[in-house]
Amino acid sequence: MSHALTAAVITSLISAGVSVYSARLSYEYQSVTQVNQIKIDKVQKFDANSSEIVDALNTFIIAVNKSQDLTKAKEKFKTVLLSQIQDAESIKRLFGKEENALISSYQNEVVKFNKDVQTFVDAKDIGQWAENLGKVLDLRSDLVKQLQENVQKKST
C-alpha cells in the first residue's frame, strides 16, 4: 500500500508541476499577445492620422492657389506636424532600436518640412516644398509598413 501512496503522491506532484508550467506559459503568451495588440492599435492609430496631413495640405494649397494670407494654413500645418512628431514619439517606447531609428528619421524629416512650411512665401517656392512633402509622406508610409511587419513577425 505504501507503493501506491508514493505513486499517487509522485503523480500529484508531476501533475501540479505540469499545471504550474502550463499556467506560466499561458500567462507569458497572453502578455505577449496583449503587447502585440497594443502595438497594432498604436500603429493603426498612427496610420489613420495621415488624414490630418492631407487636410492641412488641402488648406495650404487652397490658400496658395487663391493667393490668400498663409498664416492660418501655416499654423494648421505646424499643429499637425507637431502632432505627428508626438504620435511617433509615443510609438518609440513600444519598439526596438531598428524601428526607433526609422521613427527618428521620420521625425527629423517632419521637422525639416515644418521649416519649409513656415518659410514658404509664394507659389514659386512650391517645387522644393512639394519634394520635401513627398519625402515626409514616403518616410511615413515606409515607417508604417515596417512597424506593421514587425508586429506581424512577433505575433507569429
For this entry, give a set of tags:
156 residues, mainly alpha, Four Helix Bundle (Hemerythrin (Met), subunit A), 5 helices, 0% strand
What does it look like?
It is rod-shaped and about 100 Å long. It has 5 helices and no strands. With 156 residues, it is mainly alpha-helical. It has one domain: Four Helix Bundle (Hemerythrin (Met), subunit A) (Up-down Bundle). The protein has helices at 2-48, 50-65, 71-92, 97-119, 126-155. Helix 2 runs antiparallel to helix 3 (71-92).
Enumerate the spans where pLDDT stays under 50 for 5 or more consecutive residues: none
Largest sheet: none
* CATH architecture term: Up-down Bundle
CATH class: Mainly Alpha
List the helices and strands and how they pair.
Layout: H1 2-48, H2 50-65, H3 71-92, H4 97-119, H5 126-155
Helix pairs in contact: 1-3, 1-5, 2-3, 3-4, 4-5
Quick overview of this protein structure:
The chain is 88% helix and 0% strand.
